[in-house]
Amino acid sequence: MGWQEQLGSVPTSHPASFTRLGDGFLTRLPPEPLSAPHWVATSAACAQVLGLPEDWRNEEALQVLSGNALWEGMQPWASVYSGHQFGVWAGQLGDGRALHLGELVHGGQRWEVQLKGAGRTPYSRRGDGRAVLRSSIREFLCSEAMAALGIPTTRALCITGSPQGVQRETLETAAVVTRVAPSFLRFGHLEHFAHHGQLNELRQLVAHVLSHHAPECREAPVPPVALLEKIARQTAQLMAAWQCVGFCHGVMNTDNMSLLGLTLDYGPFGFLDGFDPGHVCNHSDHQGRYAYVRQPQVAFWNLHALAQALMPLIGGDEEAVAELLGDALEPYRQVFQQEMLRGMRDKLGLRHAEAEDQALIDDWLRLLALHRTDYTIAHRRLSQWPARAEATWAPLRDIFLDRERFDLWALRYRERLAREASDDTERLPRMQAVNPAVVLRNHLAETAIQRAEAGDFTEIERLLKVLQRPYDEPAQASDADFPPDWASRLEVSCSS
């Protein structure tokens, strides 16, 4: 019985499509066994997406998803890629602690299944190829939280843990996250072959991406240019989604940018607490390159690096080729601006577009930034702001230190609502459907981590259920409350 049948998915007789490209793109190797593995957490929502049976979580699955065994047909592999890290060419990178087990097919959708933390690969450089429990919990929870928020992302099926020691700043315990996505291909995959002058391999890889992930681009006059434009549009939509929800990635290197427009590689991420456009969530980012406000521009820079990688595939005058690729990137700006404006209109409950909306939104964000008012709570409470001029609602007004300035903005907002005859009863559920009550704040993740490190995994399970319904008021009010004072002392870095 093949491993697809073991997991209850639709059987597929051929290997993972990426592996057909050949050994120049990947290395086949088994995972390194993890001692005494145990279940830490599983996502029923992700299991449902994969079409797994209810009883999929068994001892055999535990061993396979910890790297201790393989099902029939599994030929694990790690891929090679390169990339720019913090704006500097870093050379060859690759799946240093990720192993692809193969593919599942369900409902016509193909899913790559990958173990993160399953040991060294040829691309581990000086790393040990392991993941620690702390970072695995963060990635697991945030992957599933982002999916529930409706933001394109890789998914996480489960975490398995072990008492096996892993040295980071301190000695921690090992864990493995099972991640799934239609593809884990990154900008850095294309950069790798372009940088090393391997044009045949670059051409093969682009043909693979076109065939499996952008078939509509194959009929374009210049398919690589059409592909670049598609990636630019998807990336713009992703950046707008991040900015609207207040998500900071932390390490937007080109090797962490998805060719499919997915949120990829959850390391030192963070959701905004107090609104600070210059907030840097990654303690290792000393220059603030990946600050919240800079994320859209960094993505555009990364797209230029991707365009540079595609240049060798396009014949003709170099200047003309550069112009062609530049034109393919130009929709990024327009799509990002349109999606941001649409997303912020939705967050403010505006049904119709007016020319003055951008100024109203900008002034709202300046108001939040003035004293770093909590981003998630302010938007959630705004949904209950009454449109009637004689009414007020203290829970919103009182979170602003400069209440007079808030009152001036609120007057403009009420006038704007009045122009489209906005009804409070109708507007409230519409706004609450786009303004989450709960996001994965660092202190929520930290509480789950501390309990898990003490052997109690129930907080992960509880928090996961809350995060999978982010637009509902949680039963535990503290999940949606202001962060405690100690949360400001939490730091996440590239080792997170």
From TrEMBL:
Tell me which EC number(s) this protein carries.
2.7.7.-, 2.7.7.108
Keyword flag Glycoprotein: no
Cofactor(s) named in the record: Mg(2+); Mn(2+)
Q: Where is the active site?
A: D255 (proton acceptor)
Detail which positions bind ATP. G94, G96, R97, K116, D128, G129, R179, R186, D265
Q: Which Pfam families match?
A: SelO
The yes or no answer to whether the keyword Nucleotide-binding is present is yes
Q: Which reaction does it catalyse?
A: L-histidyl-[protein] + UTP = N(tele)-(5'-uridylyl)-L-histidyl-[protein] + diphosphate; L-tyrosyl-[protein] + UTP = O-(5'-uridylyl)-L-tyrosyl-[protein] + diphosphate; L-tyrosyl-[protein] + ATP = O-(5'-adenylyl)-L-tyrosyl-[protein] + diphosphate; L-seryl-[protein] + ATP = 3-O-(5'-adenylyl)-L-seryl-[protein] + diphosphate
InterPro entries from the UniProt entry:
SelO (IPR003846)
Q: Which UniProt keywords apply?
A: ATP-binding, Magnesium, Manganese, Metal-binding, Nucleotide-binding, Nucleotidyltransferase, Transferase
Annotated positions binding Mg(2+) = N256, D265
Role of this protein: Nucleotidyltransferase involved in the post-translational modification of proteins. It can catalyze the addition of adenosine monophosphate (AMP) or uridine monophosphate (UMP) to a protein, resulting in modifications known as AMPylation and UMPylation.
For this protein, the record's HAMAP family field holds: SelO
Q: Identify its protein family.
A: Belongs to the SELO family.
Q: What is this protein called?
A: Protein nucleotidyltransferase YdiU
Query: Taxonomy-wise, where does this protein's organism fall, top ranks first?
Result: Bacteria, Pseudomonadati, Pseudomonadota, Betaproteobacteria, Burkholderiales
Gene symbol here is ydiU
